[in-house]
Design brief:
two-stranded antiparallel ribbon, about 150 residues, two-stranded antiparallel sheet
Length: about 150
């Protein structure tokens, strides 16, 4: 297979910036999820108002699992440009929904993710980053044309 025969991802020319972004977000979220378990432990997965924080962000066991899953998805989907774009949409839609959920759920007994205001800011920024990964142009190094 030649380098130009339809490969939409990482080939001999290296990764595109959306792929690098998906990989970076994937690694960060995976590490956040793993480190989170050192703070929360493995009991009371769905506790709300835990006062367990990683930096300024409130977490519980379930929140850690969600971070790990999002991280693994980013790492796996970063292999191709189309996968990275799909991951961008996953971030945009998923974290957009998490932002809306957080606006309603903070302080409620049914808040299974133990969301706080700092989480909401991170969620809206992650959603915006997802849109950038999903929609940002990529220039072909050989032809100079922009790829979607």
């Amino acid at each position: 297979m030649s380098a130009t025969s339809g490969n939409t991802g990482a080939d001999r020319r290296g990764m595109t910036w959306p792929q690098m972004g998906a990989l970076a977000f994937g690694v960060i979220y995976l590490l956040v999820g793993i480190v989170g378990f050192f703070i929360t432990g493995f009991d009371d997965f769905f506790a709300h108002d835990t006062d367990d924080t990683l930096l300024w962000f409130e977490i519980n066991g379930f929140h850690n699992v969600v971070h790990i899953l999002i991280g693994v998805a980013g790492i796996a989907l970063s292999r191709t440009l189309s996968g990275a774009r799909a991951y961008g949409w996953l971030l945009a839609i998923g974290y957009g929904a998490a932002f809306v959920y957080g606006l309603i759920a903070i302080g409620e007994t049914w808040d299974i993710l133990s969301i706080n205001a700092a989480d909401n800011w991170l969620h809206i920024l992650s959603a915006a980053a997802g849109l950038v990964i999903a929609l940002g142009p990529v220039r072909d190094a050989v032809t100079g044309r922009t790829r979607a």
